[in-house]
Amino acid sequence: TTLFRSINSLISQIYRYLCLKHNYIIFIMEERNRTLGEFIIEHQNSFQYSTGELSRIINSIRLAAKVVNYKVNKAGLVDIVGAAGEQNIQGEDQQKLDVYANEVFIQTLINREIVCGIASEENDDFITVAGSDNSHNNKYVVLMDPLDGSSNIDVNVSVGTIFSVFRRITPVGTPVTIEDFLQPGVNQVAAGYVIYGTSTMLVYTTGHGVNGFTLNPAIGTFYLSHPDMKYSEDGKIYSINEGNYVHFPQGVKDYIKYCQLEEGDRPYTSRYIGSLVSDFHRNMIKGGIYLYPTSSKAPNGKLRLLYECNPMAFIAEQAGGKASDGYKRIMEIQPTELHQRVPFFCGSKNMVEKAEEFMAKAK
Ligand code: P6P
């Protein structure tokens, strides 16, 4: 028994040492990676406006992402899952986490004294932010989908936050107007997403490439884990809800059949999570195309131009990919309504162009 106890104690000592060593190695590795805060400071001179303003925008997104991440990861445990019983403007049941995430991002942005207006998928109209001095002197508007794919929460599938940032175009010092929100995507000064997945990541661009930061939840710090993210020109993954096949335009049907042909590097692999941020993120890393076309059920498509397609298009283009509505560049569409829908073809450049070829042929 004494021998057994001493072997047991020796094994547990070794185990404890290895765990410490392992965490120490992880700590050292992460310490070698820059934090999001360090990265922002190092790159704020590349932001075309005042240096401090970008920091405040991204820092408010970062803080809100950590708070929402905590709740998303607890959703299965706390009575926060399931419809809040109300419907949003999209006519969709609002999940309690939708409502919660919306409030967190709105409040955090307002507190940072950087925005003069906010638009959200969860709010029928935009929110005017006068600032603590009621001066309307802040210069940026943020448009967001606070928790995209939230119908997946109940089944433990990754969800995401998507955000798009513009500089206001109406006079500083006056209340924002709808024109500040209805700007074409080419005017975006920043855009990004948070993916609450097996790990939580913040991926964003300010027009100088795309960088991904992974959260270490133990210490609440985002580390640069995916510098200079790029879409490969080609890919082998196509993401579309083929359950709607019979309702698709002919060009989309022809493209799907092309993807399934035994020829060259095809058939491709079909991967569709039903969460835009997750499908987009996977396709950016592995190469692929995401399509949400029009259909007889969704004559303008399903995705929202202002706070889903424009920000994802900005990221895609900055990563060397492409984003169109099947015919023209997403970021050149002149918006007419806050919650307008557009068809969305986004991903590896050559795959999007091939899909556009089929759309043009079938016109
Ligand atoms: P469908 C989630 O509701 C979402 O807006 C995107 O995140 C996702 O890609 C798409 O809709 C899924 O829609 O009609 O295929 O279930």
**pLDDT < 50 stretches:** none
From the spread of the alpha carbons, the general shape counts as globular
CA(first)-CA(last) distance: 83 Å
Tell me the helix content. Answer: 25-40%
| SSE-based structural type | alpha+beta
Report the biggest beta sheet as strand number plus sense, adding barrel if it closes.
Answer: 8 strands, mixed
Keywords:
single chain; alpha+beta; 363 residues; binds 6-O-phosphono-alpha-D-fructofuranose
Quick structural summary:
This protein is an alpha+beta fold and 363 residues long.
Structure description:
With 363 residues, this protein is α+β, with helices and mostly antiparallel strands. 36% of the residues lie in helices and 21% in strands. It has 9 helices and 15 strands. It has helices at residues 2-32, 36-43, 51-74, 96-111, 178-181, 250-260, 276-286, 305-318, 349-361, and strands at 83-87, 93-95, 115-120, 127-128, 140-148, 159-167, 190-196, 200-205, 210-216, 221-226, 237-239, 269-270, 288-292, 322-324, 344-347. Strands 4-3-5-6-7-8-9-10 form an 8-stranded mixed beta sheet, sandwiched between helices. Strand 8 (200-205) and strand 9 (210-216) form a beta hairpin. The longest helix has 31 residues, at 2-32. The chain is globular, with a radius of gyration of 22 Å. The relative contact order is 0.12. The model has no long low-confidence stretch (mean pLDDT 91). The structure holds 6-O-phosphono-alpha-D-fructofuranose. 6-O-phosphono-alpha-D-fructofuranose binds next to helix 7. 6-O-phosphono-alpha-D-fructofuranose (P6P) is lined by residues 148-149, 151, 241, 274-276, 279, 302-303.
